[in-house]
Amino acid sequence: MEDRYRSQNYEKLKSSLLKSGSLFEDGIFPADGSSINKKKPTSRDVRWLRPWEISSRPLFIRENATRFDLDQGELGDCWFVAAASLFAMQGGKMFDNVVPLSQSFESGDYAGIFRFRFWRFGDFVEVVVDDRLPCKRGRLMYCNNREEPNEFWAALLEKAYAKLNGSYADLDGGLIQDALIDFTGGISEVISLFDPSARPPELFDIMQATFGMNTMMGCSINKTTKVSGEQSLPQGLFAGHAYSITAVAKIRDKYGKLHDLVRLRNPWGHTEWTGAWSDRSTTWFSVDADVKEKLNFHRANDGEFWMPFEDFVNNFQFMELVHLSPDAITAQVASETGKVEWKTTTNHGSWIRGVTAGGCGNYPNEAKMWMNPQFYASLDPSDRDEDSDQCTLIVSLMEKQTIMSEYTSIGFQIFKIKDSVAKTPYFQAQLNKNAPPIVIDESNYKSIVLSRVAFSGQYTNLRQVCRRFELNPGHYVVVPSTFRPGQQSSFLLRIFNQKNVPEIKELDEVTGPTDYAKENADKLREVFRIYAGDDERLDASELHRAMNDLCVIEGQDEPFCVETCRSLLAMMDSDGSGQLTFDEFTMMNTELRTWRSVFQKYDRDNNGYIDVYELCRAFKDIGFPLSKKILGPLVKRYGGKSMTMGLEEFVLATTRVRCMYGAFMTYADGGIRGKVTMDLDQWLATTIYC
Hints:
6-stranded antiparallel beta sheet, 5-stranded antiparallel beta sheet, alpha+beta
């Protein structure tokens, strides 16, 4: 559908229509039953009329849009009407961007075609519609303006939104936040009200503060029965129904008592709260006239009413907030609203069964977590908030699904890369080359990332999940996922920061054939270059730091100690210089790779140790079999009381045997079966260096 309506160019269509003198008829969203309900097309008792057939003097919009311009009709889209009412309150360039005010029914400009813009997964898209609207008995069936029946912007906006989503029936049930996001590109937040321990204790203060930042809010009550339609409740409220929150206020009555009040609007345009502070409540007698005037209080059955904050949280179960983002507003609008301008990074991705749909990592699918798309994010010390050592980060994950009943349970998790990994020169060199630093998988994640440091909360089938975090400067991996493995969908991931544009890179393999020998040689050369210095040789301390980096970035076991590195150096030092050339360093790593492989083969419990009884076969597998005369002292030296060896002891034992063998062959008369004759100095020099 989206590709089809994107092909409709408003300017070209209108120009052609004005020249021909004809009126637009939309073939993509026709005036028939399929546009009302795509699954069950119906046109019973429905006539599609243009505004001038309904009213003698139709207007697109009368002066400025207000929250009272929209009243819900027969369609169960109270969430959309409530959202559009809130959006109308914003006015200005933001409203004009979605509902271009230059449109009219004036002769010479009217061609039966109207346009609207909606934010769709990162961009605003234009949707054009004809002005034929579904009617019964000459009156609009759906959204209308009861007080100004000749104003049609709301009905036409509803039609464009129905076209965007498939049909009018596809608007039957939804969330206020979804429509507000489609108007603004904002980021949403859902607050549960029914559990007092879960809602913020300072909620009223939060509502007041966010209203000052032009945040838009709505609320709803869950139904307790399976009866279709809304469920009537005491004191004029309805469950299964959405309300817009149009104001919050703290007032003082004549007796000096403070009251926290919330103003709401029923999108029906009638039927209001009848409790305390309602239109007819006697509590208003306790308030001075100037307070009422400041609150714009008036008694009218227009669907809008005040109620105490305490009654609000006790009656409503969910509150939806949509905060404006830089995607939704220009710098000029930001200056109009006085809002902080956030820095944003946007990423598009998808979950594909068997490829990137790994699920949330619950048992028994923990390893599949790392199949999911991964995004590296860096928080610099300069990102710190004022008067804080932490950085504010907002993460928003949106599923690219337009039908609410088909939403997938989604969420995200944030892991911190270990400082020991992030500080390695190799890791930093990869970042400087603008390359993904490390691709994490089930084999290396324990070595690379700490346990989860933040997450989106309970996985939910909302279209968008969003959370605000306070994190320490550092390096992080954001992993968006569906709840269960194998669930397919696509998503938009946005990350917001107040100070700098977030540095985000997707961690993924580079497509193409891999020469593993060359890849390994390039990695070794980079590490060698970092530590060898101008003389292009590694001494024992430099080798220790280089080996430390290699172990970290390859997700291997804990790095070796300096003494082990001294033994490895001695084993490979062909010229007795006490240093390694790059070729010697490369050969040493080749040997180590073989030893690790053999060690892992005999580490049958995968606990990091092998039994010394396996030592004979292990040495045979690395191509250096030992007699029992040699195995005896080796086990005594490195086996200990536990009669087990860790990898480092195994490496030390192997290098010691190799070094001593090399020394023997240097001085032996008669080769491997010969004998060695040396004085004390020769003996000590040889054994000390080994």
